[in-house]
Amino acid sequence: MSTVSESVVGSTRSLSAAKRHKSIRKNSRRIYSAYQDNQGSSDDQDKEDERADSNDPEEMFQNIQYQKEIIANIRTRPWPMRRKLKVLKQAREIVLKYEGRLTRTRGYQTAGADLLKKLSRVLYNILVLFIPWEVRIKKIESHFGSGVASYFIFLRWLFGINIVLTIMTGAFIVLPELLAGAPFGTTRSKTIPKEHLASAQDLDTIWSLGGYLQYSVLFYGYYGRLRKIGSAGYRLPLAYFLVGMAVFAYSFIVLLRKMAKNSRMSLASASDENFTFCWRVFCAWDYLIGNPEAAESKGAAIVNNIREAIVEEQEKKKDTSLAVLISLRILANILVLLSLAGSIYIIYFVVDRSQKLEQEKPELTLWEKNEVSVVVSLITMIAPSAFELVAQLEMYHPRTSLRFQLARVLVLYLGNLYSLIIALLDKVNSMSSAIPLSPGNWSESSSFLATISQPEGNSLSTLVSEISVSEHRNITIATIATVLDVRNTSTSGSGVISNQTSLFEKNIRSQQDPCWETYVGQEMLKLSIIDMIFTVASILLIDFIRGLVVRYLSDCCCWDLESKFPEYGEFKIAENVLHLIYNQGMIWMGAFFSPCLPAFNVLKLIGLMYLRSWAVLTCNVPHQQVFRASRSNNFYVAMLLFMLFLCMLPTIFAIVRYRPSQHCGPFSGQEKIYDIISETVANDFPLWFSKVMSYVTSPVVVLPALLLLFMLIYYLQAIARSLKFTNNQLRIQLQTERTEDKKKVFQLAAARLQAPEADKKPDQQESDVTSQEASIHTPSPRRNGSITDFNSPVHRGNSIHTITQSASRAELSRGGVAGSVRSPAVTILPKHRPPEHTPSRSDTQQFSQSGRPPPPFLGGPSGSCRSKSYHHMACSPPARYSDHIQSDPLYRKTLRSIHPMEAAGIISAQSYGGRRGHTTRYVIVNEHDPRKKLLRSATRIPRHFLMEEPAEILELYPRNIKRYAPRSAHHQPHPHRSHPSQQHLSEEEEEEEDGKGKRRISLGKAHRPRSLSDLHQPAHFYIGDRGERHRSKDSRGRYGVHEEDEEEDGEEEIDWGDLEPHSRSQSNVRGADSVLVRNRRHIHSPGRPCPSPVRSMHMESHVKPKTRPKLEPPLTESDSASLASSSDQQNSSTDQYIQVIHNKDHYLKSEARQGKQAKKKSKASFDLNVTESKDLVYSNV
Amino acid sequence: MSMSFFIHLFSAHKRFTELLTKDEKDLPNNRVPMERILTLPELKSNPFRKRICNVFSTSEYKDGGLTFEDFLDLLSAFSDSATLEIKSHYAFRIFDFDDDGTLDCGDLEKLVNCLTGETDDTRLTPEEMRQLINNILEESDIDKDGTVNLSEFQHVISRSPDFVSSFKIVL
Predict the structure, then answer these.
(1) Is A323 on the interface with B (CB under 8 A)?
(2) Rounded to 5°, angle at Cα A1074 from A1071 and A1075
(3) Does B169 contact A276 at a Cβ distance shorter than 8 Å?
(4) A1065 interface with B at CB cutoff 8 Å
(5) Nearest to residue B137, comparing CAs of A1042, A281, A725?
(6) What is the DSSP string of A435-465?
(7) How crowded is residue A442: how many other Cβ atoms within 10 Å of its Cβ?
(8) pLDDT digits (tens, 9 = 90+) for A279-303
(9) What is the tens place of the pLDDT at every residue in A130-182?
(10) DSSP state of A266
(11) Which candidate in B141, B159, B168, B171 is best for mutational testing of the A interface (most A CBs within 10 A)?
């Protein structure tokens, strides 16, 4: 046998050498153009694959699935278009070609799904066309970057909300009232009082929303109190109330959903790792910026940013004159607080004054009428700038100062709105209490009652008496008593009388116009209008005129206008967003009292959109401190939510607390606004319903429900807390892993330093390698029993002799007698070990030893299988290390010449056929070699790699190359070759001693993967992914029999199952960097956050016990090293890749099995396992 | 395919053909030299414009000329729908000035210089530059090999809140 194989090797050597040469050239080109695609080769290979496809439906199905995956993921590949198209086309062809052979229904299903997908896409695209202002926003985005655009996107989103609100109020309140309600002038609440009629059309009346506007659908007061209107019996009052509440409910839901969505999106950035410098450099530029000026300012901002970061870093430890700074900050805060208090006081004062003016003067001037809203708008405009000035005192970091600024402005706005609404409600208070009917809802009213009841008692006015009579029905005896009481007291006080007349005057007026709801609505609408005017004015004056002046007068001015004093107006994103929020708050506050407010706001937002975008494009420069757009989005929404809540409170308060006006509005005559619900339930619903309602609202039900809610909240909170906890745990784990990674790198560096030493004794090293291989071989018989335990010592043996022995025996033993044959090798080997050990090698060897835990306690096949998977992991590190260690020039050179050998080996292996055959194939698969084609016809697996790998390799190559470049430039073309060939050299020598070709082949096999892993870890890793995928599919579909036979297989599968989604999701993370991998996993699959760590820990635990018994004699350094390595595994992607290989083997095996004898049952599978494990071992090494 | 896709395609093609001279228009598969590509306002003010052209160019002369296909590649990498992975991949290549597959000190220095501009008042001093690069490597270079490789880069970038939203070019 051996001689035959020799000759084969010899003959094929030259051929393969020539090929190798070519491939070298190809590879070299690839490397130099590191990122260029290597579509040519992959394409060829694809075609090969197509041909190689067998008729096996299972395979076909898998293939189709795979191709579909390609089609689905093609967009996520960083390939040039041409390549994408080609791959896509091929994949489609394959799918089309073979899908028909499978069941027809599947084809229909997929066709239907495709159609649906296409349709939905078309629909989506059509929808996109209708998104308002998309082009405009894109334009702004392309000029000013994403930060400015975020303002407009936010504005558009608000616009959307307001549209919905408008539709709600318009469709359910305004339209019914207009269509079916009593027409204008029919009832008292819908007619303009006679004394106002003359001035109803005056401009200033209209301006202050009086006259016709006041008696229109704009305001609460106009709506009729009829319970049902129109022929259909529309319940307007009920609708009014429900819609008023629905406005809030809808806003809440939308905001919360948006927040949830945003936070989901920003989950990745939630961690507090910060890459300040990296982000400032890598992510600094906004590629959307297309405007030279914006680019300039952005550039300046970046420079500032970077400088700032550097300075910060330099002065991190230094503390600058704290006392001064603190006092300055205190001063600034005091100033801010003062201005806040001042603004609140001014607003309150103004409202109060307007109230007084209204009472005292019959005719108000324009200023007096609009005083309140003008003052409020002025404050909202001026105060932020003042705050900004103050903030300069504080000398905070720009980011912090921006935050402070935002918080202050928000407080200011809220303070404004609140003081306004409180002042208004105060006025309402006095207004509604001015009517004699409110029976002591609040204490102050009693004093008013006194004055009011007096005129009644004297029957001075019929009107008043009318009212009072009508009201008396509602008043209880007790209240009458109090009124009488009050009357008595008031009559006793004669001083009151003088007041009475004036008050009475006012009362008459307020009784004609007693609608406090309308009044509040008017004020809010007025405020909104004036705010709009001020916004427009500020845009025109501050931005536009200033821009004009700066641009055209800069030539004839003594200083540079553009860069010194006036400059161009900055677009202050944060402030503007806050203004939007404030504006929206006003709308929410007033929407209940003025149903048309949302509609007005829609118009306002449209106007604002156009004006702002125009202003931004013409006369603004972007703010220097760009508020991070994506992160701030949620911040905006959160503030909006806050605003919504705070704006809802006054409305709710007014609804709950105050009695609705008696002569206007849909709720007139009711005690409380919300009485409409109970009234409706009582009157219009069937009896059982009201009964049910009474039960439901009884404390018996409400209390438990509340309790339940509390429990639910508590539970959810607990879950959230535990999630946070696990999150933290994972993060900590990640950090430790990273530090361990670092440690490993240091070890690696140490190994590198020692590498030169190692070079001096290449033979020994090689022998080491071979010994490892030998150890690798041993596993094959392992499943025969506990014998495997003895094998472990074999690994330690470094001498060539032992290796050959063990190897050859392994081959022999494969027949099935493994146990007895084995033992001798075992006993012999350990002795050799100590002297042969070279320092550089030592760690890797130890790793490998530790890694192979021929499991003493895991007898039988199951044990071996499990050990396999673990030890793959363990073994991987050596691969990594070895690449560094063995990257010496000497080898490189030898390698090339020897290449052919390897090829020959493969070929010869093929010739062996049978079990042998697939192992060789496997090897081939791993190589990225044109030679694959020859062998591939037999196996199907390679195709996946063929299609996928090259790209990955290309990407990753540079790293390796870089590393090796200084040492041997010409070797670069195919670094992965180097190792195997080297191996072969040594093998050849050995062979001469042995004369056993078989062994050599097996060695070659064993080494191949290892060399690959050395040089291309990333590529491997990727392969692993693929393999996993296959495997998983495989195991589900095909491995049924298998699983029955072996439990451990199932276990493994579970592991895989865990990994699978991760690996899939992370296919992008090709790097060997473990931390990355980890992170990805966690992030991508929140559903299963723990599996990987758990798994890794699991592995660790397994590895530890196993290794210990074995290494008992030399438990010293090697043991610790092995432990370290095993723990390291967790971090490294290698574990994955190893497993992958393992899977692949499975896959291959299964394929082979199928090809050979699909019907064999348990026995066959057992055999399979045997071979499998062996193969695994090979691959590992 | 969808409407908007074609609209985008047409607009891209229009923009591209505007860059061609008359006699070039008749040739199939013609390449627009980098200088003319860079006159596009979307790229004009980009400090990495030359790198962008070089990265997406398939020209064998390494002159950064783009065919229409390359141009589409560019646009798709910078489009809204490109994934973070694609974007970070191309960003890495753009920043990898010497095309060696890693960001080493030289690359980082060039990158920072591109951002800050070459004028004396904006340019960082060697001392600042050294510190900056050290800090960057400190943060991102997980395997401590003195360079930032693709996976490390993607790791950093994937944490950045607004990389995806800013790594866009809209025609």
Answers:
(1) no
(2) 110
(3) no
(4) no
(5) A281
(6) STT--SSSTHHHHHHHHHHHHHHHT--HHHH
(7) 12
(8) 777 877 878 777 777 777 777 777 7
(9) 777 877 887 777 777 677 778 888 899 999 999 999 999 999 988 888 888 77
(10) G
(11) B159
